[in-house]
Amino acid sequence: MKKGIFIVILLVLGYNSIYFKKLSEVRNQQQTSFDFKTFADSLYYQGILKSNNAVELSQLSALVQSNPDSAFKAYGNRLGIGNSAYFMVKGEGKVIEKQASGLKVVTDTHTILMVDTKYIFGNAIRDASGLVKLTDFKTNADFNKLSEALNNVIREKAIPEDLKAINVGDKITLSGATKLSKTQDKSTTLSILPIRISKTE
Amino acid sequence: MNKELLKKSQSLIALFVLCLAISLLSDKFLTANNLWNVLRQISVNVCISVGMTLVVLTAGIDLSVGSVLAFTSAVCAGLLKNGIALESFDLFIGFTTLGGILAALLIGLLIGVFNGWVITRFSLPPFVVTLAMLTVARGATMLYTQGMPISNLGTSFEYIGSGWLIGIPVPVWISLIVVLIVVFISKKTTFGRYIYAIGGNEKAAFLSGININSIKLAVYGIAGLMAAVGGVLVSSRLNSAQPNAGTSYELDSIAAVVIGGTSLSGGIGSVTGTVIGATIIGVLNNGLVLLNVSPFWQQVVKGLVILLAVIIDQKSKKK
Fold first, then answer.
1. What is the CATH number of domain A35-199?
2. Which spans of this chain does the record mark as coiled coil (chain A) (predicted)?
3. Residue in B92, B98, B154 nearest the CB of A21
């Protein structure tokens, strides 16, 4: 009797836990659904790189120190409320260290930038761009898929190309996304997720 | 009698004093939003810690729970998102939310049982065995995820970590059910009494006919299962499985157990004490954030609280 009940429970759980489909059908279905990869490609090359909404890092730093509310209102992008926002920034600096995970750069104003070139994750670039909003997508999940696809384009295609020519001691210009908080320690190293890095000399 | 009562209630008194102090220092602490947030945050640690309590009651320790949490969370997310593709049969096995969760729980249970088996079969110290499993499970997580998060796991899965049910966050319901079950097991069943007996005096327990190995196997299995519950909660709350999830969770859960009055040498303690311990840690974390204390100082304060709890534990044992 006990065995029977146990088997019935197992069957009910199993029936509600897994389903079977033809692998070829699943693959076809995936191809015909919204192509995040293509959309992310176009957002990056046609949108983010061409839009001119990045603020000079030195200008932003000065404004954040003197009037954070104004800096956040003018240049910050965020989805909800809170003390933090994403910024698209640009600036120049000298590479002082080339690590496996990124570049350590010092700017003319002696700000240290950690430019992550390997671990490009999260929504910083999508949100800092200000070019897409949550309501453009059916679900939160789709909106997040865009971040994933966009990060992939930058991490796997764009940045490795840019990095090839860059060595320690080179002067570079870079643009990328950063997250700032009104309450954060202003002296901390700034972490940047790059969208473009190029050698200037 | 009064002294005994005071000793039993010391964690509860500590929690009350902590809440009172933080509420006097920050007007945001006693708001409904913040309190729900604290409960939601501690629910993961509560689940892991109740499993850890049973292990510690047998005078053991399980350092692998954080990594097991990460691994089960990754497997759950991977199955939900990608299923299993069998190329040679042109077959795709998809997993529903229930399927993904059950698979994660099963894997957590099996890892825990494996820990227990190695400890009992080879008479090895639990500290070493579970330390090894900590590394193995973390490595397996990195291999499975390729070091990248697995995201977008579906709204029904997300509901488990972020949803509300009858005005209470779902993770709080889950941790409450887990606590009730484990309290029942530890207080009202023979298995529970055996756990205390083994922790109190393993030799005496053996001589009285208790099958120590099978009890330990089950206890470590439950700890693994609870870590998997924590894994499901963490990944559903973020709607994503992070390869570095659960880092140092083993320390938080051991801290909750110790602060809650369970003796590290086994045999003495309770699951309800651990729940209070986990709440103290959660409230302490929340309070330090509300009071704008630097994250570095937060770690120092947490460490000192754990140290204080162990000193009190040792002193009361000597008495």
1. 2.40.50.420
2. none
3. B92
